[in-house]
Amino acid sequence: MKVIVSAGGTGGHIYPALAIINRIKEMEPDSSILYIGTHNRMEKDIVPANNIPFKSIEIYGFRGKNPFKNIKTVKSFFSSYKKCKEIIKKFNPDVVIGVGGYVTGPVVYAAQKLGYKTFIHEQNSLPGKCNKFLSKGCTKIGVSFKSTLSAFPSGKAIFTGNPCSENAINSVPASKSEFGLSENKRLVYIVMGSLGAEKMTEFLVKSIYMFNNKPYEVLFVTGKASYEVVKNNEFPKNVKVVPYIDNQTRILKRADLVVSRCGASTLSEIIALGIPSILVPSPYVANNHQYKNALDLTSRNAAVLLEEKELKGDILVRTIDELINDSKKLTEMKNNLKELYIPNSAGKIYNILKEMVDRK
Q1: Are 103 and 10 a contacting pair, CB within 8 Å?
Q2: How far is CA 50 from CA 12, 30, 81, in A?
Q3: Are strands 95-98 and 32-38 parallel, antiparallel or unpaired?
């Protein structure tokens, strides 16, 4: 199989793309893969490090509604579209796959205009503008949440789950000692994203003294952008603070409770591993999609929702205490998470691609 894959900007798009690529290689070792990403985002380092051929395009996302601020974005789209047509014609793939991020726009659109079969995967509960735009010309569409099926043209969307979940299942658990934690104490894992979340981090730093003398330990991942400010504070002995954890599923497997934002990939990992969670959706993302993501879990009693505007005083610590000491509630959440888990997501996507390619 000859495949072009495009995804970019955040790990929430890149890692599902890598999971799909890995499954294609597993099923068809002689496959030819080409990855098209942005010239200045995470994928330019991550993808080549995984020994995947990589080509970059200069493309930017829309910034607000001011048309003058978006002149550069529009120009970059058309120049990237032209470049993508040349790349696609030269590579001549069997199928072109978009796994999210604005970089997929010119790639998948160029493929559609050239008459190639295209597949997109939507990780979020509420589809992004790019995928909505591309969906009309797509051959098939994969979605992570069942509630998203109705957002796309009838008959095109398939409930596949998020392929990130397989990476989570297959990861090797970390040793707690690696992070200065005790093996025999319960662990609360708090993470606010690889780049951090300023207001959330500020609230957590003010609240963290309240964890003193708790019977559990806390591992707080600040994000690289916030660590330099946070590290100078004094923390209780049972609280460990780090800027970033590569392959966080290693430590997720050791956690008893997670406090997290609601990016689609993180939620897929939480679901796959069956970890009770307190979800704090970011209110600063497009169309409030993290809140919609969280509702897919909280409406099924598989997680607890706390909005950022509610975070005052000791509410987070109280919520953690109530939940981690309620074994009945934790068991109920774990059971409900099992019902949400979609196994073999990357395998399902491979089967769709194979059927698309084989159909003449």
Answers
A1: no
A2: 17, 16, 26
A3: unpaired
The type of residue at 11 is G
HSE, side-chain direction, 13 A CA sphere, residue 87: 27
Environment class of 302 (CB within 10 Å of its CB; exposed 0-12, middle 13-18, buried 19+): buried
pLDDT tens digits for 288-320? 889 999 999 999 999 999 999 998 989 999 999
Strand partners, 76: none
Of 80, 61, 77, 58, nearest to 69 by C-alpha is 61
CA angle, residues 44, 49, 55, in degrees to nearest 5: 40
In the numeric block, the tokens 């496959």 are attached to 31
> How confident is the model over 111-153, as pLDDT tens digits?
999 999 999 999 988 898 889 999 999 999 999 988 899 999 8
Percentage helix, strand, coil, to 5, in the chain? 50, 15, 35
Q: Give the length of the chain.
A: 360
Q: Where are the alpha helices (DSSP H) in the chain?
A: 11-27, 43-49, 71-91, 104-113, 129-135, 164-170, 198-207, 224-230, 249-252, 264-273, 289-298, 315-324, 327-340, 345-358
End-to-end CA distance of the chain: 14
For residue 246, what are its two tokens?
Answer: 């590569």
For residues 303 and 330, give the distance between their C-alpha atoms in angstroms, rounded to a whole number: 9
Note whether 273 and 303 are within 8 A (CB). no
User: Measured in whole angstroms, how far is the alpha carbon of residue 300 from the centre of its chain?
Assistant: 20
Question: How many CA atoms, within 13 angstroms, populate the side-chain half-sphere of residue 331?
Answer: 3
